Structures are given as structure tokens and as C-alpha cells.
Amino acid sequence: MFKRPQLLSCPMRSVLFGSRALHQATPRKAIALTDCLSLENEQRCRRSLGRNLKLYEAGRGAAQDHGRSQGRWASILVSLCSVQGEPAFLFTLRSSKLKRNKGDVSFAGGKNDPSDKDVVDTALREASEELGVTVATEKVWGILKPLRETSGMLVAPVLANLGPIEDLSFKPNPEEVEEIFTMSLSHVCNPSNRRYTHFRTGDKYGYTLPVFRNGKHRVWGLTAIALDHALAIITSP
Questions:
Q1: Is the Cβ–Cβ distance between 162 and 80 less than 8 Å?
Q2: Residue 99's pLDDT is what?
Q3: From start to end of the chain, where are the E strands?
Q4: What integer is the mean pLDDT of 132-155?
Q5: pLDDT tens-digit profile of 85-104?
Q6: Phi and psi at residue 139, in whole multiples of 5°?
Q7: How far is residue 32 from each of residues 44, 141, 196, 219, 229, measured CA to CA in Å?
Q8: Which of 154, 156, 214, 160 is nearest to 183 (CA)?
Q9: Cys-Cys link to 77, which of 81, 123, 155, 237 (CB 3.0-4.6 A)?
Q10: Given this model, what pLDDT does residue 176 score?
Q11: Higher pLDDT, 144 or 19
């Protein structure tokens, strides 16, 4: 079920370091990507994400007043990992048996359950149910800014580092998951693998969302937004 990706280089000189001397920047960029899963960067991300707790509390109150969502939250586990030592993100391809968003690329996740004590608990439970792996609470780096679905339900993207993919044993739920795969950090950071979709509101421009390409897989919608936000956190200087 799990497919190992082809590892790609990421000569992103024009994005991170300006436009001069492209050949000189490639080693620096490679080191920066490798360091994204370092303890130092993890601690920096944890400090940065800690500021989002107040946003979560404010959003939670708003959700309780929202008729369609009935005060419920959903959580997704934005899963970092490493593949042969290279930083990557773990995704699922939703089963074609599902009624909603079937065949879409997503992070493991779903609606909160009465037994869940918080949004982190929801994300870890959903990952266990969908992927068949247990993610310890200490693997969680923090919670990204809340997102809102078109239904009005608020979604908490929980960022965690699952560790080396080689150490994980997946038992995906075939009713929910058709495939498990990864995309290397270098791949999603490469501008040639990134596109944008522009949406209209009525007869005017509305908003723009990122799209990440990876062969037959396309990361778009709320998953792409969560990925984009995660990248901004983990790759910031």
C-alpha cells in the first residue's frame, strides 16, 4: 500500500536566496531542507505554533455559534516524516468508496468524537483509525492556524513528525484509504511542482489557492492550504 517516492533535488535559489550565483546556493538549500527535522528547528516550530492556541480558543467559540457546524471541530494530522533520511510529508489517497471527496489526496483526519479531549486527540485517533499507526503525543509539534471548510466547520491542522518511514508499519483502513504515499520536502518546495487555482466570487476575482503536483497525485483544496501553512512554519529562517 505504501509507495516510496523518487527523491528529487530542490535548486530553489531564486526563492530563498535571490537570483545571483545559482550554482553557489544549491548546497546551502540542501542543508536547510535536511535541518527542517532537526531538534533545533522542532523547538523553534513549537515556540511559533504555541502562539496559535489563542486563535484556536477564539475559533472554538465561533464554531459553537455556527448553526451548520453545530459547534463541532475536525482535525487533520499534517504528517512530517523522513524517507531514507530525507524530510517528507505523508499523504493518503481517499478511497473511491467514500461519499465525500473520494479519490482526493488528503492528510489523515476527521470530525471530533465525544471521547476526544481536544483537537490533537482527534487528529491522533483519526490517524490510528485510517493508517493503523499510533502516533505519540510527544511527536506533535503544535497546531497550525484554524481553517474553515465550505460547510462552515472549523478544521485544526495538527503538525507532527512521525519519524523515519522505515520504522512505521501501516495497516490502512480500506474503507477510507486507497493509498499511502509521501512527497519529499524538496519536491513540494520546487516551484515547478507548484501551481495556483484562481476562484471567482460572482463576476469578480475571489481568491487563489495553491496546488501541488506529484505525478498522478494532485494536492489541492484544504489539504494544499494546510501544506502551504506547514511549509511556511518549518522552512522559516
A1: yes
A2: 60
A3: 2-3, 73-83, 86-94, 105-106, 109-111, 140-143, 147-148, 154-164, 177-184, 194-201, 204-214, 217-219
A4: 92
A5: 999 999 998 876 666 655 68
A6: -80, -15
A7: 14, 19, 25, 24, 18
A8: 214
A9: 123
A10: 85
A11: 144
Mean pLDDT of 147-172: 92
Question: Full-prediction pTM beyond 0.85?
Answer: no
Burial 110-136 (b: 16+ CB within 10 A, else e): bebeeebeebbbbbbbbbbbbbbbebe
Question: What local confidence, expressed as pLDDT, does residue 60 receive?
Answer: 54
The CA distances from residue 108 to 113, 126, 129, 180, 223, in Å, are 15, 6, 9, 10, 10
DSSP letter assigned to residue 139 = G
Give the dihedral of Cα atoms 42, 48, 51, 55; nearest 10 deg.
-90
Q: How many percent of the chain have pLDDT more than 90? A: 48
Identify the H or E element spanning 235: none
Beta bridge partners of residue 183, listed in sequence order: 89
CA atoms within 13 Å, Cβ hemisphere of 197? 13
Mapped onto helix, strand or coil, the DSSP state of residue 233 is helix
User: In the predicted model, what is the mean pLDDT of the chain?
Assistant: 79
Contact 199, 207 (CB under 8 A): yes
